[in-house]
Design goal:
single chain; alpha/beta; 568 residues
């Protein structure tokens, strides 16, 4: 409404200016036509002036007026000036050829010159305006995706803030997108970004929504907000984070397909902030909170998150210090065969001490490490130390399986299979005794590429386990294509096995599915005999939990292998 009012005021002003200049143009033409009737000179006091020279002065003033018309009102002025000049040109020309008034010949030339000069100015100004519009478009458009860019976003948000109407600032950050660039290449990444921009724009765009690319793998949606968070969440999840069976979540580039999700953070105007920089900062904090909860989620900013971000930054610095000062140590949790209670092996767990020697909860530092590049360093430290210290144990007990967690970021970074082979060679650890645990996020990032890496690892004898199965987007359609030897049921489902009928049925379905796929199934976090009885009834293969074994130090794990019967 305000914009249309401004346009109306602008047009009204232009018409007033144009009318005044047109009247002035006609006035000069009228004076000029009167003067051309006279010849010779006339006197003003003691000064003699020629009528012809006076006519030239008014011709110049007429040209100058036409130029002002074009410059101030552009197309309107050019059209008006052209009509007046052409009419004058016709009238003056007719007096020359019909009435034989030769004195008017200079007037014909001046009218023609006026038309040429003003037309030249108009087309030059028009060209400048077109170039300026193109430059403005380039300056406000993301070159890769064609979406509005950061500069355009800032301008749009500031306009909406000036209006004072409530809106939501939604920051969308692609999950695990860096791994696609690192493994498939930036050309693939760029094509995926183009597809994402087009598809998401179609899903979320409406009359009041504004969708822009902030940079890298971050996008922003500005949309009206009426206080109904549920409606906003539903719209975003339907547009962005659909199930993997939905074709709209898959993005194909050449011969590869990728399942792309996003973590989203929301801040509100004017509830949370009244300026664009703070809104963006708060949305960014909320987005990282969504990633910390397991990615592909949505989080609304709360004031306490600001302090949580400071805590995460402090934790990241603590991780850096711990890596430099060697304050990490390993624990090994035993895994057993349910049928005969024989020892299968150990899962490697990492622990950390702070500068004062106190243990830090893994649930506190692991998510921070996973959100940063430090996870690769930590993964490599864990694997290197685990293989080194457990090599003598495996040499003495050839059936022991050592399970080590590997992050998606590490596995998709560089030539991971070559790194593992070199590590096995340098430590002397047998490949058949090593099991690598991966999560579903690995395959969400890039199914084909991840499968190829795991195939190479299996070819040299390494086992592959799918950790925390059921907490992500794994489905039977692509589980059958994955090189998996073991499915691990997440502790959250085991906790509900006796209290929630649907949770009980879900555990049974996972065990059955695993066996159909030719995999063994292990249940994590088993803590009671009642849970064990249910798992036995469903023919679960393996168990890991406090019921039969807590995490042990290396010496305790080594002693356990001397006491328990061992079966791979």
């Amino acid at each position: 409404m305000a914009k249309s009012r401004m346009e109306f005021t602008k047009n009204q002003t232009e018409w007033i200016i144009l009318t005044l200049l047109a009247l002035l143009f006609l006035l000069f033409q009228l004076i000029n036509s009167r003067l051309t009737r006279y010849g010779g000179t006339f006197a003003i006091g003691e000064t003699e002036l020629e009528y012809g020279r006076l006519c030239s002065i008014f011709n110049v003033l007429q040209i100058f007026t036409g130029m002002l018309m074009v410059i101030t009102t552009k197309r309107k002025g050019w059209i008006c000036m052209s009509i007046l000049s052409i009419l004058n040109l016709i009238m003056v020309t007719s007096t020359v050829f019909v009435q034989q008034q030769i004195n008017n010949l200079p007037g014909v030339a001046m009218q023609a010159l006026n038309l040429i000069i003003c037309s030249t100015i108009y087309f030059y100004v028009r060209k400048c305006d077109i170039n300026a519009a193109r430059l403005d478009e380039v300056a406000n458009t993301d070159e890769l995706t064609g979406l509005p860019n950061r500069r355009s976003l800032m301008r749009h948000v500031n306009r909406r803030i000036s209006k004072g109407t409530p809106f939501a600032f939604v920051l969308l950050d692609l999950d695990n997108f860096k791994s696609i660039n690192d493994t498939a290449g930036h050309e693939y990444g760029d094509e995926i970004l183009q597809q994402i921009a087009q598809r998401w724009k179609e899903q979320v765009q409406n009359k009041t929504a504004f969708f822009a690319r902030l940079g890298g793998d971050e996008f922003v949606l500005i949309t009206d907000y009426n206080g109904d968070l549920g409606k906003l969440e539903q719209m975003l999840h339907e547009a962005v984070n659909r199930a993997p069976s939905d074709k709209r979540t898959r993005f194909s580039v050449r011969d590869s397909s990728f399942f792309i999700t996003a973590s989203m953070g929301i801040s509100l105007f004017p509830e949370h902030a009244d300026n664009v920089s703070t809104l963006m900062s708060y949305a960014d904090i909320a987005m990282y909170q969504a990633k910390a909860r397991g990615r592909q989620g949505l989080c609304m900013f709360r004031q306490e998150m600001d302090s949580a971000l400071t805590d995460n930054l402090q934790m990241e610095q603590m991780l850096r210090d711990a890596l430099q000062e060697n304050r990490f140590f390993l624990a090994f949790q035993p895994q057993y065969h349910i049928a005969d209670h024989s020892l299968r092996g150990f899962e490697t767990l990492v622990r950390m001490r702070d500068a004062k020697g106190n243990q830090v909860n893994p649930g506190r530092f692991i998510p921070v490490a996973e959100a940063s590049a430090l996870m690769i360093q930590l993964d490599q430290w864990i694997m290197g130390n685990a293989l080194t210290c457990m090599q003598p144990v495996v040499a003495q007990h050839p059936d022991i399986i050592l399970s080590v967690n590997v992050s998606a970021r590490n596995l998709l970074h560089g030539d991971f299979s070559t790194y593992v082979q070199n590590l096995l060679r340098s430590t002397g650890f047998p490949a058949r005794n090593l099991e690598l645990e991966v999560t579903e996020s690995l395959f969400i990032s890039s199914l084909e590429h991840a499968s190829k890496i795991l195939d190479r690892l299996r070819d040299i004898g390494i086992r592959i386990a799918l950790d925390d199965f059921g907490t992500g987007y794994a489905s039977l359609s692509y589980l059958n294509r994955l090189p998996i030897d073991l499915l691990k049921i997440d502790k959250s489902f085991i906790d509900q096995i006796n209290s929630d009928p649907s949770g009980n049925a879900f555990v049974k379905a996972i065990i059955t599915m695993g066996h159909v796929l030719g995999c063994e199934v292990i249940s994590e976090g088993v803590e009671s005999d009642s849970q064990l009885d249910v798992l036995k009834g469903y023919a679960c293969d393996l168990l890991q939990g406090f019921l039969w074994g807590k995490p042990l130090s290396f010496e305790e794990a080594k002693q356990l292998t001397q006491k328990e019967p061992i079966q791979a």
